[in-house]
Each structure stands twice: as structure tokens, then as C-alpha cells.
Amino acid sequence: MKRLLLVLLFLPSLAACGSAAPSPAATLSAQDVAEIQAGDKFNDTDVMFLQMLVYHQKQGLEMTATAASRAQSPDLKVLAQAVQATEKDELSMMKSWLTQWKRPVDVDTTKSLHADHGGLPATGPAEIKALKTVSAAAFDTAFLNLFLAHQHNAIEMAHLETTNGANEAVKAYAARVRESRQGEVQQMLRLMNG
Amino acid sequence: MRRKIAYPLVALSVTAGSSLAVASPALAHGYVSTPPSRQALCASGAVADCGPIQFEPQSVEGKKGLRSCDGGVAQWSVLSDESRNWPAKSVGNSVTFTWVLTARHVTADWEYFIEGTKVATFDGGNAQPDAVVSQTVDLSRFPGRHTVLAVWNIGDTANAFYNCVDLNIGGGSPSTAPTASAPTSPPTTAPSYPPTASSSSWAPGVSYKIDNVVTYQGKKYQCRQSHTSINSWEPSIYTLALWLPL
């Protein structure tokens, strides 16, 4: 089911670019990702998940941009750049879905959501800002631990969506979030512990 | 699904207006990332076949006062399975434990035990901790291989989070004089990624460089952003940032 959906989403774009484009790089951009359609059937969880993740991913982009310039380990730098590139496209896609649904794109949902279960989320403005000022020697460890917590939070949000969401495209995307962030967590723990 | 609701204090703290049925991983909160706890070793893939704990290492939560690696949760019992031969990290006599917290609950305190003996306590002041908490413990009285039980006692619930961390203290030489020097890290065995091929089938765990070409489902793609591949980063419309169709 999920795979079928993915294939359906994937084919038109490939056909479009494969047939007419002499230079693929020129014709494929984040815009194409934003063209992935989610349809018009959705529930509150779908909206909340996207709003939460938009906010979360903006924070993530700030953090990975810092890491792309400050990371000491070449492997960490590569990981940060890859996460940055993929999440930038995901952000365009999520924003286009919310916009099509005529729902606000920029909502700070962290306070109310996390207050409900008694804790603050891992990353707030202060934590993110600290990454810019921590000493160069301490940067990798500081970033890895903070981003680890950040991506665990994304996995938790994805679980909410796959459990209670209604829209198939959003649920499929949430499953991808879970899988990719788990892969990132693996790489980060290995970078930390050898 | 895996949490039985039940502790009166938890129930009380939730009455503050929650209509949101939060799925259980959203209630998960924290673990020791380095030196790696057993759940961190499961999550990194360093120890295989751990079951679901690999997906939520921050979830080893149980009643306060336990002395078990699995927090008394049957689902996490692999963490108490000594037949697993958990790899022990070689460290100095002074060890800095780093906690990654995914939800920052007010904290009563943090406790460290070795074989039932308490070796350190850090007061949490019933305040909200940082997302990343580091604590340095002098373990010079315990040279050699030991399992440290690290416990995070939550301030406003009856629960705690449990981590077992297997260490080889003093770098493996029991007679080492106590020093506060940086832990000597052992020769690290890097994850053995398959070598990069210029054109091969896409696979997870491979280090791809810009311009590498892979085949995926019968089509060729060119890497446009260096990365080590993971599941769901295979070429698709979602990952155009990484792969361009040729």
C-alpha cells in the first residue's frame, strides 16, 4: 500500500524529467518535491503533525547549518549537510500541503503539546544558540547530543501521525521520517562512540 | 500500549488539562548516550537484535528504586540479558556520563550505582534540566570491568529512567593511579561500510560521494550531495536533494 503510493508519486516526476530534460540538474529542484500531492482528506492529527514538524525542522535547519560550518569531524560535516539538504525539501513539501489545506504553516505548538505531558521538548532557542558559541573543540559532542535529542523528538512526532493520522501521503511521509531519523540516530551514536 | 497508566502521581500530573492521547513514545524521555548505555548500543546497531528498544532507547522507564537495567519492563528485558556479552567501553578513572533528554522533566536527582553500591548522586533541585546533561563521576575505586547503573529520578512522577553502562575502568589496568585525565579511547573499529563503487546497486550504509552513480529499481541516479546512505534515503522524489535521475 505504502509502496504503491510512493511509486505513484514517483513516476510522473521521473517521466517528466526523463523525457524532456537534457540537463536533469536544471529541471529538478525542491519545487518538484513541493509538487507531491497529499489530496484533500485529512484530520486534525495530520495538520498538527505537519505544523509541529515544520517548526521542528526549521530549528533543525538552523542546527545543521551551524554544524555544516563548525563541525570538526569530516563525517559529521557530511551528515549535517545531507540532513540539511533532505529536510529543506521536506519542509517545502509540508508547507505546500498545509497551504493547500488552508491551514497556518507557522505555529509554535511546542509549549501546549509538551506541557500536556510535563516536559519541555529537547531543543529551544537557547540550546540552538549555544551551538554557535560553544568552543570549537567541544562543538561536535555538543551538536551530536543535542541533535540526537532533536531527531528522537521527530520520531516521536512521526509515531503520533502513523498512529492517529488519516491522510495516506502524510502517514507515508511520517513513516519515512521515522526511518530516516532512526538511520541518522545510528550514525550519530557511532560518531560519538566509535 | 506498553505503559499501563497506573502510578497515582502520573495520573495527577496529567489532569492539568490533557485531552491529547499521546502515543507512548511521546512519553519517552532520556538515556545515556556516552559512554554508550546498553540501549544506546542497541540504537546504534553496535549490538544487534535488541528488539524494539533500538527504536526508542529513551524509553526505559520504571518505578523509582529499582536496580535493574530494564526498568522492570518485560519488553526491554534484553537490556538485563548478561549472556549478550555487552561490549565494555574503556575509560579512565574519572568518567563523564552524558544524558540525552527528549522531554525535560523536572528532576529529583541522578544516581549512579555499581553492583548495588551508590557511587554518586547529583541533585536535580526539582528543576527542568538542560536537553543534554553531563556528569563526571570518580570511579577509581572500581578498576576493571563493571556495569554502572545510571538512574534519572523524575521530580513530579513516581518514575525513573534506567541505563546500564558497561565500562572497563582505568583503561583495563586495575593498578592505574587515579587521574582526571581524558579517557583513553580504544582503537575504534569504524563501521565497515562496503566500498564505494562507481556504479552499483543502491544500498544502505554506503558512503556515497558527489557524482557517484547507482542503480535503483532499474534506473540510474547520480549523487549530488555526499552522504552515508540510510533506509528511506534511496533515490526517490523525496530525496532529489541526494540523487538525480539520469
Chart the SSEs and their pairings:
The complex is a heterodimer of chains A (194) and B (246).
Chain A: H1 2-20, H2 24-27, H3 30-34, H4 44-70, H5 74-100, H6 110-116, E1 120-121, H7 125-133, H8 136-164, H9 168-193
Chain B: H1 8-14, E1 30-34, H2 38-44, E2 61-63, E3 89-91, E4 94-101, E5 103-104, E6 107-114, E7 117-127, E8 132-138, E9 144-154, E10 159-169, E11 199-201, E12 207-208, E13 213-216, E14 219-223, E15 227-228, E16 243-245
Parallel strand pairs in B: 3-10, 11-13
Antiparallel strand pairs in B: 1-4, 2-10, 4-8, 6-7, 6-9, 9-10, 12-15, 13-14, 14-16
Keywords (chain A): Signal
Organism (chain A): Paractinoplanes globisporus
Domain DUF305 (chain A): 46-191
Domain count of chain B, please report it: 2
Cα radius of gyration of chain B in angstroms: 21 Å
Q: Mind summarizing the main beta sheet of chain B?
A: 6 strands, mixed
CATH fold-level topology of the largest domain in chain B: Coagulation Factor XIII, Chain A, domain 1
Which structural class best describes the helix and strand composition of chain B? Answer: mainly beta
- Estimate the global geometry of chain A from the Cα principal axes: elongated
- Put simply, the count of helices of chain A is 9
Order of helices and strands of chain A, N to C? HHHHHHEHHH
Number of helices of chain B: 2
Question: What percentage of residues of chain B falls in helices of 4 or more residues?
Answer: under 10%
- Give the averaged pLDDT of chain A, no decimals: 82
Radius of gyration of chain A: 18 Å
Q: Which chain pair has the greatest contact?
A: A-B, 71 and 69 residues
What are the low-pLDDT stretches of chain A, counting only 5+ consecutive residues below 50? 1-30, 114-119
**Main β-sheet description of chain A:** none
Classify the oligomer: heterodimer
Q: Helix-strand pattern of chain B, N to C?
A: HEHEEEEEEEEEEEEEEE
Q: What percentage of amino acids of chain B are in beta strands? A: 35-45%
**CATH arch. level architecture of chain A:** Up-down Bundle
- Shape assignment of chain B: elongated
InterPro entries (chain A): DUF305_CopM-like, Ferritin-like
Organism (chain A): Paractinoplanes globisporus
Domain DUF305 (chain A): 46-191
Protein name (chain A): DUF305 domain-containing protein
